[in-house]
Amino acid sequence: MFCFSTSINKRNLIYGVFDDDSNLIHAVEEVREKGIEVFDCYTPFPVHHLDTAMGINRTRLSIAAFLCGTTGFCLGLLLQFYMMVFDWPMNIGGKPSDYHMLPSMVPVVFECTILCTAYGLAFLFFFRNKMGHGVKPDILDLRQTNDHLLIAFDSDTLDQAAKSELTTILNKNGVLSIHEYSGQYANEGGAHA
Amino acid sequence: MGHHHIEIKQEKFEFTSRSKMLSIILLAVGILLSVIGVMQIKANDSKVAAETTSVNAVGASHETAAASEHAGEHTKPWTTRFWANMLVNSYYFLLFAVGALFFVALNYVANAGWAVMVKRVAEGISAYIPIGLILLFITLYFGGTQLYHWLHYEHEGLKEGMEGYDKILAGKSPFLNSKFLFLGVPLFVLIWYCFRIILRRLSIKEDSEGGLTFFRKSTRFSAAFLVIFGFSFSMLVWLMIMSVDAHWYSTIYTINNFAVMFVTSVTVISFFTIYLKSKGYMELVSSEIMHDLGKFMFAFCIFWAYTWLAQFLLIWYANINEEVVYFQIRLHGYFRPLFFTNLFMNFFIPFLILMMREAKRNPKSLLVAGSIILVGHWLDVFLMIMPGVVGTSSGLGLLELGMPIAFAGLFIYVVKYSLSKANLYAINHPYIMESATYDVGP
Q1: Which of A48, A78, B41, B207 is the S-S candidate for B78 at Cβ 3.0 to 4.6 Å?
Q2: d(CA B148, CA B244)
Q3: Residue B43: which residues within 8 A CB-CB, separation 6 or more?
């Protein structure tokens, strides 16, 4: 069966549940100030500035978009040059069938650029976010799909002192509850409410 | 992140005597260069004329005489070139001011908050409208018959059946006539100026009194302005710019000119903002706002190229005699290199520079791309007017260099003077905080 392994598969995590996005951001900032790295945050809606608070690098989507666009541009030119100049030159209104017809190629090249960029980015988005058929989503807690926000830590990388500090910080920032998650059964269930 | 408390302090731009001096020097240098340029053209003209007469006197071969006669037919006096340059520059610099007013109105109607921090800069730029109108009217009034052959034709008063009767010009005469030109153009610009006065007054009053009434009123006036502007700007462009080739017309011409207006005015707004920031003012204008101004520049470079190509492609492809003459003169002969330079300066180079995120956030690269756009669109307007008015006796000389410098000096003086008259931040605008804490995201 076609299946990617999800990022929470075979991991032991500690996660806190929030019901307010600004509390979550404050918690993320404070935890990172103490030198504890956040494994990931799970939110039902995009939270502004969460990525900068978590220290995630800027997306490289724009570079991918540029590359896709350039590919489309070249393919569009190649397509028309091959068809209209080399393979089957057609006489349209007495126009020349060589590089002089370049202006008339612009609309098609433009469309090809957009087509390649749009499709390229859509597929890249599905691929990068592991949104394929048969892929089990990263669901630690079903409430993350509704109205609660989760902050997760990899408990294997934390010692006891760090864990207790973590609990204090989360409690201080209004966490609703703190849970432990063991990902060994992730392949069978995933969801663990 | 974290919600920092931002305090917006009243700031006022001080128009120092030094910067006054600098813009006056710019004006003087520009005028000097123009005068030298005119003298050069005059000297050159008299030389050519002397040669032509001597050739005719000697009685050269029939072919040479015919050729020189043909050339003489197209040679225009230096005044034509001078007025054509006046039209290019007075129109181009008026576009900045009108575009800035359009930018203010657009942000009101779109309910946009991000640009409130640079609203006063745009308002300051729009202060040039009356000066621009005066210069434009002088150009039209004194240079009209040399600029527009339909105006010249009107003065001849030919009737049907007479020699030289032009059916197309006669057909267009209900619109292309001196009444429309001398009354319509000032009327349209005056209407825009009235809106500028109203919006400016509301804006200044808002500073001292506060409250939402000024915002609501401004939005209503802005909406009215946008509707009126859409129609009157089209008419203005048809009357003044498109009519230099009176036998020719293009339905997308105005939209192309609108794109020129918007991209150049946004560039000028960001230039003045960068200038003010470099002088220590407007520190609250973050790179986020510059980023969005850069996005506008980028977007309207593409839009300009889109409309430009839409105009070119149909005419080029259809290849109909009466349409293709417009591009014939621009694509072949003297204007050919300029024609392609125009395309590179206004689309390819700024497109590739401004595509990068960091280029829009960095004032230096914004200045580079913006300068290319400003010079490029000057060339664009030059290419709209010159081939039709001056034709083959046109050129890029000291006159063409000096006149934009003189206009820039005047323009900078007027804008800086207006900037120094009000606070740099519209502190009681309801969206000022949104603009001050603005963030375009990753």
Answers
A1: B41
A2: 5
A3: none
Contact list, A104 vs chain B (CB under 8 Å): 313, 317
Pairing of strands A177-182, A149-154: unpaired
CB of B332 less than 8 A from some CB of A: no
Read off the pLDDT of each residue in B308-337 and give the average, rounded to a whole number.
Answer: 91
Q: Domain boundaries in chain A?
A: 12-57+139-185, 61-128
Q: Extract the tokens encoding A167.
A: 């609990």
At B54 the pLDDT is 65
Provide CATH code, domain A12-57+139-185: 3.30.70
Q: Taking Cα atoms as reference points, which of B255, B237, B254 lies closest to residue B303? A: B255
The Cβ of residue B175 has, within 10 Å, a number of other Cβ atoms equal to 14
Per residue in A104-150, pLDDT (tens digit) is 899 999 999 999 999 999 999 888 888 888 877 788 888 888 999 99
Using CB atoms, which residue from A52, A66, A107 is nearest to B1?
A52
**How far apart are the C-alpha atoms of B295 and B275, rounded to whole Å?**
19
Chain A residues with beta carbon closer than 8 angstroms to that of B439: 48-49
B212 inside 8 A of chain A by CB: no
Contact A41, A24 (CB under 8 A): yes
Chain A positions touching B330 (Cβ under 8 A) are: none
Side chain identity at A128, as an amino acid letter?
R
Q: Is the ipTM of this complex over 0.85?
A: no
